[in-house]
Amino acid sequence: MDIVKLIEETRSYRRFQEKREIPAELLREMISNAGMAPCASNLQRLRFSIITKEKERMVLFSGIGWAGYLTDWLGPEPGKRPSAYIVIHAPAEEEFFTGIDVGIAASYIVLSASAYGVGSCMLLNYDKVSVGSVAPAEGYSTKLVIALGYPGETVLLEKDSKQIRYWRDEKGVHHVPKHSLESLILKG
Ligand SMILES: Cc1cc2nc3c(=O)[nH]c(=O)nc-3n(C[C@H](O)[C@H](O)[C@H](O)COP(=O)(O)O)c2cc1C
Question: Which of 4, 54, 142, 164 is most enclosed, with most CB atoms within 10 A?
Answer without folding.
Answer: 142
